[in-house]
Amino acid sequence: MKAMVRVEAVSTSTEHSFYKVNTDVIQLVCGHGVEDDAHFGQTVQHLYLIKKDPNRTNLRQVHLIALERINEWNRLGHPVCCGSLGENITTSGVDLEYLPAGTRMRFQSGAEIQLTGLRKPCHQVDKFSTGLLELTMAESKDSEVPYKIGVMGIVVVTGEVVRGEEIKLIFPPVPHEPMTKV
Questions:
Q1: Most CB contacts within 10 A, which of 55, 97, 100, 121?
Q2: Conformation bin of residue 114: beta by default, left when phi > 0, alpha when psi is -120 to 50
């Protein structure tokens, strides 16, 4: 039997803080991201990336992490909760980092996100919980998935995302390409 992919939590923050606050619903806006979130916009909103190129297209409009990954970190002694690593959507039922680049996630409202790549972890992860950064990176440079701290996406169809709803995965045409960092 195929596992159901669903939304476990939705989170947002108007501040450029490390964590986001859980809520019952978020609004996705095509081409911009999560309404009322610090990373909302057509051009890059990540503070480090703005310094490099403020006109760069925002491929990091929405951040997703799997609940299974959060549970794994908790079992290893790291106090991670939904939203505490800055994700907008916490999922269950799918290993996000192994999805092919370009996968679309359709929510019950009709809203859709297209996955653009892997989130690269930063030093702030260890400030949150010492030793967690090491767990978010692959043991080998040759690993199929170099980073395990969620994925990034862009909004391709406007709509709501509600905690508890199902997600339909729509895969790109073959051959599938693995996601790389964005």
A1: 97
A2: beta
Per residue in 117-136, pLDDT tens? 999 998 899 999 999 999 99
Question: Cα–Cα distance between 88 and 80 in angstroms, integer?
Answer: 14
- 182 close to 59: Cβ distance less than 8 angstroms: yes
Contacts of 162 (CB under 8 A, 6+ apart): 7, 10, 24, 25, 107, 108, 109
Residue 38 one-letter amino acid: A
C-alpha torsion sign, points 92, 98, 102, 103: negative
Write out pLDDT tens, residues 87-122: 999 999 999 999 999 999 999 999 999 999 999 998
Joined together, the tokens standing for residue 98 give 């192994």
Find out whether 10 and 36 touch, Cβ atoms under 8 Å.
no
